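Hi V.,

You were right to ask for the full record rather than a summary. Here it is.
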Amino acid sequence: MNKILVIGTGSIGKRHIGNFSKFFDKIDISEIRKDRQEETKKKFKINEIYDDYKIPLNKNKYDAVIITTPPHLHLPIAELACSKGNNILIEKPLGMNSTGWEEIAKICEKKELINYVAYCHRHINYTKKLKDHLESGIIGKIINANVRWGSYFPDWHPWEDYRDYYMAKKEQGGGALLDESHGLDLIRYFFGEASEVFAVVDKISDLEITTDDNAFVTLKMKNKMFVHLSFDLISRFTFCKIEINGSKGSLIWDRVDHNLKIYNAEKKTWKTEQFTKEDFLEMYINQAKHFVECLQKKTQPMISIRDALKTQKIIDNSFLSSETGKSIKI
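Predicted structure:
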């Protein structure tokens, strides 16, 4: 593979650069902050550096464009990148809302462009193991699930003032619901599509942010099961757990302790399958390998724009439900 462009070199942008440097000969970057330009240049072998993403996209052809800016910029960058015939990887969430993304999907289909949205938690080995357990019927008929996804936002990037980080700013696409929508993507991955949503989304803490810091979402799935999801930016201890209850037992996916727990209702016993933090972090390189393989073989990625749009529409309707106080059909 020859050359890619990474637009945005914050923490996730640099992680992508490190992973994709194993597969591409040349990496260009576009970054508006001079300090990040210098930091990235010192850490990696960078081919060209641009202040404005429009310049390289109008000047060069890339094997892929990696979009790792705040969400409010995802759509205009994707529009230009795809119009120039570039394959794209977009960091999650897809964007601020669903508007405009159907048109991008159509352009990608017409031009046969690979398009992938980075809901990377699907690439954790114990996520795949959980899906295997569910498909095996080990806990019988699935009845409901509970997702608890929370951490303390000021602890995320201790090297910078949290108030300056895009996650603190509603206009840039920050907030608990948009950022922690990994949980929504995983629910769709495990159980299919939702038919209805009721949500309460608000900013209720003393954090100096303009985004939501709490989101409570209840989904009715098309398979008739119920799912409750709790997202927050205020938990002083990090929680990242999915509990699934069936007619014959329960399954718990725990991304903090890196394990799966299986409860057998008949025997009244728990079994723990232990994994490691390295298994969790491996999701990033697994994701990079998946994207590169799609580029090489011209195959559809696990999470295309069309797939991520289904998650985005749940987000959009969660905000709408919270605003109206009503349950919304999806």
